[in-house]
What we know:
The complex is a heterotrimer. Chain A has 3 helices and no strands. Chain A is mainly α. Chain B has helices spanning 3-24, 28-52, 62-93. In chain B, α1 (3-24) runs antiparallel to α2 and α2 runs antiparallel to α3 (62-93).
Amino acid sequence: xxxxxxxxxxxxxxxxxxxxxxxxxxxxxxxxxxxxxxxxxxxxxxxxxxxxxxxxxxxxxxxxxxxxxxxxxxxxxxxxxxxxxxxxxxxxxxxxx
Amino acid sequence: xxxxxxxxxxxxxxxxxxxxxxxxxxxxxxxxxxxxxxxxxxxxxxxxxxxxxxxxxxxxxxxxxxxxxxxxxxxxxxxxxxxxxxxxxxxxxxxxxxxxxxxxxxxxxxxxxx
Amino acid sequence: xxxxxxxxxxxxxxxxxxxxxxxxxxxxxxxxxxxxxxxxxxxxxxxxxxxxxxxxxxxxxxxxxxxxxxxxxxxxxxxxxxxxxxxxxxxxxxxxxxxxxxxxxxxxxxxxxxxxxxxxxxxxxxxxxxxxxxxxxxxxxxxxxxxxxxxxxxxxxxxxxxxxxxxxxxxxxxxxxxxxxxxxxxxxxxxxxxxxxxxxxxxxxxxxxxxxxxxxxxxxxxxxxxxxxxxxxxxxxxxxxxxxxxxxxxxxxxxxxxxxxxxxxxxxxxxxxxxxxxxxxxxxxxxxxxxxxxxxxxxxxxxxxxxxxxxxxxx
Lengths: 97, 114, 315
C-alpha cells in the first residue's frame, strides 16, 4: 500500500514537472505574446495542481494538506488575474513582446 | 563539499557580480539593483555561518539569521530612499545621471516624471 | 555526490545565472524582472540553508516590496535608459572592475572554503533560555528578547527612511497624498483581485504573526504581507493613498516604535535594565510588541512604496 502511494506520488510530481516543461517550451517557441501567455497559464496551473496532488499524501495532517490546496488555488487566482491584465494591455496598446 | 559551502561560494560570486555591476553601470537605478545583489551575497555568507553553527537541536544558529532578517529590512529601506532620490533627480533635472556635466534638458523638467 | 547535493548545485547555478542576467540585461525593466525572480530563487536557497524565517523575509521584503519599488522606478525612468557617450565605461575601467571583483570573490571563497574549526555558534546559548521565555522559535527570541535593541533601532531606521522619502517632495506638497500608484486604466481583473485577495491575505498575515512565536514567521514577514494587501487595494483603485499629514497615519507609524520604547524604558524598573522583561510575563509582552510592530511595519512599507507626496494637502 505504501509502495503504491509512493509510486502514485512520483508519477504525479513527474507529470507536473512535464507540464511545467511543456509550458516553458511554449514560452520559448510560440511566436506571439498572447500565445505564450496561453501556454504559460494553462500548462503551469495544471502542472502546479499535479505537483500539489502528488505532495498531498506527504503532508502531515489535514490542515497541512488544506494549506497545499490553498496555495494552488491562490496561484491560479494570481495567474488568471495577471494574464488577463497582460492580455488586455497588449490588445490595447500593441505588443512590446 | 557540503550544501553550505556550495551556497557560500554562490554568495561570494554574487558579491563579485554585484560589485562589478555597481562600478560599471552608469545608470543609478542599475547601480541600486547591483548593490542589492551585493547585499544578497553578503547575507548568504551570514547564512552559511549560521548553517555551520547548527547545534542544540536547531538547523542553524539563530543569531546570524536574525541579523540577516534585520539586514534585509534595512537594505529595503535604503533602496526605497535611493530610488526616491533618483526619481527626484529625474524630476528636477530631466535626466537620471550621476555625471558632473549639467545634463541637457531633453526630457523635460519638473512634472515630467508622471 | 548525493542527489541532494546535485540539486543544491543546480539551484546555486540557477541563482548565479539569473544574477548574471540581472547585471547584463540591456533594458532596465528586464533587469528588474530578473531581480524579482532572483529574490524568489534566493528564498529557496534560504530554505535549503535551514533558515525558513529568512526565506519568508527574503520572499516578502527582499524580492516582493523591493521589486515593487524598482518596477515603479524603472517604468518612470524609461526615457533615461541610454547613457550618454561620455558615461559609458571604458574598456580599461571594465577590466579593472573585473580584476577587483575576481579578487573579492577569491577572498570570500577562501573564507568559505577554509572556515574556522570548530564552527563558532551561539545556538546552545540561545536555546538555554527559550523555555523561560515560552517562545519556541529561536529567531523570534533573538529578534525580540536577546537582541531586541537591534530590532528597535531597525524600526527607527525604517521610520527615518520614510521621513527621508517624504522630505524629497516639494515643500508645498508636504502633508499631501502620494500619487504614484494607480494604473492609467482601471482593469476589471485587478479590481476583482483587489476585492478577493485582501481578506485572505490579512488572515495569512495575522496567522504568520501569531505562529511566529513557535514556528517560522514573525512581525516583519506579517507586516510585509499586510502591506502587500494594502498596496493591492490602492493599486486596484479601490482606495486612495492616504494623506501623509493625517493623524491616524502618523499615529500608526509611531505606535510600533513607541510601544517598543515604552516597554524598554519600563525595563529600567527591573534588574536587567533597558528592554528586560519581567519573569513569567515575557511572552505576553513580546506578543503585544509584535502586534503593534506589525501594524506599523505594514503602514511604513506601504508608504515607502507609495513614495513622496505629489498633491497638496486638502485643508
